[in-house]
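Structural prep section.
Before we set up the soaks we want a predicted structure of the protein with 6-O-phosphono-beta-D-glucopyranose in place, mainly to decide which crystallisation condition to try first. Input record follows.
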Amino acid sequence: MAEFRKGFLWGGAVAANQLEGAWNVDGKGPSVPDMCTGGSFKEPRRITLSIEQKTYYPSHEAIDFYHHYKEDIALFAEMGFKVFRTSINWTRIFPTGEEDEPNEKGLQFYEDVFKECHKYNIEPLVTLSHYEMPYALVEKYNGWASRELIGLFEKYCHVVFERYKDLVKYWLTFNEINTGTLPMGTFLSLGTIQGFHGPVTRLPDDPQVRFQALHHQFVASAKVVSYAHANYPQFQLGNMICFITSYPLTCNPSDILANQAAMRRMNWYCSDVMVRGEYPSYAKALWEKEGIKINMEPGDLDILKEGTVDFYTLSYYMSTCVGLDPHAESTAGNMSMGLKNPYLKASDWGWQIDPQGLHWTLNEIYDRYGLPIMVVENGLGARDRLEDGTVHDTYRIDYLRQHIIEMGKAVEDGVDLLGYTPWGCIDLVSASTGEMAKRYGFIYVDKYDDGTGTLQRFRKDSFYWYKKVIASNGSDLSD
Ligand code: BG6
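Run finished without errors. Recording the tokens verbatim:
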């Protein structure tokens, strides 16, 4: 197998709202996930208009990383992490998004976290927006549907760039920005992503609003990327795509074309803008077909052209199929549904496991853009059993091993791969279902779906395995 580059960034990934808890502590305002109830595979989460008494909101305590971060970072260091991907919760810095002055206590918290990482030579990789918009901006502006958000987002980014300029080098603007291309309703919590009222008030989905919101996000991202390049030349800025690899269900040319259209819309549309600095040639046809008219201000296209990213990042969990047969069996997945692939097995949550798909995907991305790539999410959400203070999670080790092997093959093919941060390196709240039962971590957290648990941390078998993987720079994947 090919060798991963020297200094390969092995680590793990989380998002603030899924692990920090302390949702209303030290001046933090409510963000959209704070309004999301618990759910399950069968019972969708709800976003409530206000906090309902007696309703369980998983983000409110989560795994209380806010008060456990030292212990948790020490465990990451024990595994040998070189990088830790987390996000800044906008509402810790600007509780409603509109204050003139930032909240010092929120700023101090992330400073402490990043310093703690550096104590162990762990490089923070920071997502500026990971499903964490201030809820006040949803109420007042309907989130990213409004152009007002651009300036508010810039203000927030300028503050954190300046504060952490000596602590953080790698930044991502919007987590899984391309999920904004998906119809609302396929994932109720889409409200958490673009901040629309829709999922709360059950307004019908409107592609016009979603694609316009995406335009605002593209402009906002490009503006902060340009600003960072001009003021902090040491920074590296990346995009982040929820890559839903899809294959044509059959070799019928109609299926091939349907899949090409799906790939363009889901996977390429956003990164084409963020990497190449312009809307792709197929955008006009896509807008026309769906009745979308993007309102642009003079100068927007120049802004996009200037603010292109330095590296490409993606989440990769699964693949799916696309075809025209109305009787084909469908399957669940990360954000989007698709058709069942008879060659693949699926997780308990119906996500089809496809390590080779990662090899194929990395090659495709690198062929298209030629930028360094980082896989910033990957992993298996599974039910774990705590036995004698550990979890024998061979299934998770198998999943990760196969994906690392395939990443190695992509490297062999010439892909410039910077790093790998498997998702939920410590158990945390599931974004789609709000469950704790869907666990991804190397570290088990004693916390359950009814909110009970001691919050004690335990090393799983995968913890020791991953430690060995990192120590050998990916060459020892054995049990
Ligand atoms: C990605 C998100 O879609 O997948 C994460 O960026 C999320 O926030 C992860 O947690 C896994 O999804 P889930 O629904 O299993 O938590």
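Observations: The pocket of 6-O-phosphono-beta-D-glucopyranose is lined by residues 15, 18, 175-176, 242, 315, 334, 377, 381, 423, 430-432, 438 (CB under 6 Å).
Flagged for discussion at group meeting.
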